[in-house]
Amino acid sequence: MDKLTPKQEMFVQGIITGLSQRQAYRKAYKAEKMSDETVDSRASELLKNGKVTVRYRELLKQFSNMSLWSREQAFNEYEWLKNKARQDIENEGVRQANSNAFLSALDGMNNIAFKELELEDKKLAKEIELLQIKLDAEKGAKPDTHLMEKLLEVIEDGG
Q: What is the model's pTM?
């Protein structure tokens, strides 16, 4: 893959760290005097650049993998706490401290599991919407650009 220019790399890094396309563009390029519309247009075109898109996807994948590891690590910590609390309950009997620790660990484990399922459900729903738009377009129906715009917003926001 061809290397990005330093400004392109800064733009992609900005988006990955949570900046909007506009903010990332303004940070990477001298765009103080440009209107928001101009910046938005240029940022959009820049993100459509093949090299920039490839780099964005690479960094997004790395970031996702780090996030996955963090969720897994957090789940393991909750499991350790749950097991220690259970062991303490079995050895010392039920007390407020060990029962609170046990219940907190279960709650944390459930939150991690259900948030992941919720994100998967949202992603699947958006994929279904996109497929429906494509089917409607093939049938000759007028495409609902509002839906497509909302879908792109969700994809850009990471789900």
A: 0.44
